[in-house]
TrEMBL record:
The lineage of its organism: Archaea, Methanobacteriati, Methanobacteriota, Stenosarchaea group, Halobacteria. This is histidine kinase. Residues 263-454 form the Histidine kinase domain. Its EC number is 2.7.13.3. Residues 85-135, 207-259 form the PAC domain. It catalyses: ATP + protein L-histidine = ADP + protein N-phospho-L-histidine. CDD domains: HATPase, HisKA, PAS. Keywords: Kinase, Phosphoprotein, Transferase, Two-component regulatory system. PROSITE patterns: HIS_KIN (PS50109), PAC (PS50113), PAS (PS50112).
Length: 458
């Protein structure tokens, strides 16, 4: 315990101060006279104890609304009546620095005399933290996507306005509730919380869930949520934070696309196959050879390509939900095997490595890029696939694409060749986006096209 400078040096007064931490002053409960001030007051306020004893309260109080002598006297009266009073007070040090304090007044008695002990603690850091938290809460409350937290018992805690709006339940009903009261996933295997708990040791990881929100009015919305554990000092699960998104309309569109794809596959591919068979029959059975049949073959082939491309766009989802390791060099090799490349060549770097993705769609990405190179540069094209920072690049020695057209190449319907479907590079962009990657176009060292895919996680 620090020593004190006291106007009354008797042992009784010092006994009162024993084991009291913080900046302490002792006053006569009846008269308000300051009897002692701890020496730590100099560190906090910049005044010596003897100087501080003689100061009026206004001298060490910041000029804040509601802070005046009447307000302080009301607190002292409360302590006299109730035995204790705690409040926050913004102080001002000798050098003009302002800071928040927490003041605790306690009434005590010694040798028949009543005293008021005033313990002052600096809470400026805490107040700043509270202000920052309030700001963050305000910002989160304005986020258009639902945001929520789970406590260590997996009960709902904080929910922003968007989460309240999506669920249809009042905020007070959501707080402390079991998420199962609104989140009912028909495909759930029941171990989502266990899977979230397992991530506690690595808060950089997150879990993606998809399910159904049962709203208070009985309606249902399909929701996608990404949930990550809250940081923990001891590695134990202390709760989680989640961001949800209403994907009801997207799921409906995907269902419509799936039905469209089924119709396209059946109603177009079957008669197309029949038409191709008729051309073959004319050639093989009837012995007919004609430029018109060759033209029909080309038209049938283009129609088949269009059907394949539209099916790929319709059936592949907007995101890759179950990625697995994909060896890029092998994916390029397999893509080149199915590319009508003639005498062309592809050089694949040994350092491409492995990425997390959908093997079929990664191969399709390379197929379309390689086919694009062959289509523009000809059958003797030379292609390189090299690693770059955060991804890989596919370059060719063809004529390239004019700079003013490079922003358009990934749009649906764009093609610079007569036989192009206008889907090829659009599909490449869709596949990259589904993996969370970005794709851009520039000029290769040979003057051809160079496609760079970035944001790739190894």
């Amino acid at each position: 315990m620090k020593e004190f400078a006291a106007s009354d040096p008797d042992e009784t007064l010092l006994d009162v101060l024993t084991n009291v931490d913080g900046v302490v002053s002792v006053r006569d409960a009846e008269t308000g006279e300051t009897l002692a001030v701890s020496e730590s007051v100099e560190e906090l306020y910049g005044y010596t104890p003897s100087e501080f004893e003689s100061l009026a309260v206004e001298a060490y109080s910041a000029d804040v609304e509601g802070q005046d002598r009447d307000a302080l006297e009301a607190r002292f009266d409360e302590a006299r009546r109730e035995g204790k009073a705690t409040f926050e007070w913004k102080a001002e040090a000798r050098d003009g620095t302002e800071f928040w304090t927490e003041v605790t007044l306690s009434r005590t008695e010694a040798d028949g005399r009543d005293y008021l002990l005033s313990t002052v603690r600096d809470i400026d850091d805490r107040k700043r933290t509270e202000a920052e938290l309030q700001q963050y809460k305000r910002l989160v409350s304005l986020v258009s996507d639902p945001v929520f937290t789970l406590d260590e018992r997996d009960r709902l805690g904080f929910v922003n306005d968007a989460a309240v709006s999506l669920s249809g339940y009042p905020r007070e009903e959501l707080r402390g509730a079991d998420p199962g009261c609104v989140f009912a996933d028909a495909e759930s295997d029941g171990d989502e919380f266990d899977r979230i708990h397992e991530l506690a040791g690595d808060p950089s990881e997150s879990l993606r869930l998809e399910g159904t929100i049962e709203r208070s009015d009985g309606s249902a919305r399909t929701v996608e949520a990404n949930i990550a554990p809250l940081p923990s000092d001891d590695g134990e699960y202390d709760g989680a934070v989640g961001v949800a998104r209403d994907i009801t309309e997207r799921k409906r569109r995907e269902e419509h696309l799936e039905r469209f794809a089924s119709v396209l596959s059946h109603d177009l591919r079957n008669p197309l196959n029949a038409a191709q068979a008729q051309v073959t029959l004319l050639r093989e059975s009837e012995g007919v050879e004609s430029d018109h049949l060759d033209a029909l073959d080309r038209l049938h082939g283009r129609m088949a390509d269009i059907v394949d491309d539209v099916l790929a766009l319709a059936r592949d989802g907007a995101t890759v939900t179950d990625p697995e390791p994909v060896e890029l060099a092998r994916a390029v090799e397999r893509a080149w095997e199915s590319t009508p490349s003639g005498t062309g060549t592809v050089v694949v770097s040994d350092e491409l490595g492995t990425v997390e993705g959908d093997p079929r769609r990664v191969r399709r990405l390379f197929e379309n890029l390689l086919d694009n190179a062959v289509s523009h540069a000809g059958p003797d094209v030379a292609v390189r696939v090299d690693p770059i920072a955060d991804g890989f690049a596919v370059s060719d020695d063809g004529p390239g694409i004019p700079e003013d057209e490079r922003d358009d190449v990934f749009e649906y319907g764009y093609s610079t060749t007569d036989g192009g479907t206008g889907f090829g590079l659009n599909i490449v962009a869709e596949i990259a986006s589904a993996h969370g990657w970005a794709i851009s176009l520039s000029e290769s060292d040979a003057g051809g096209a160079r496609f760079e895919v970035t944001g790739v996680s190894n």
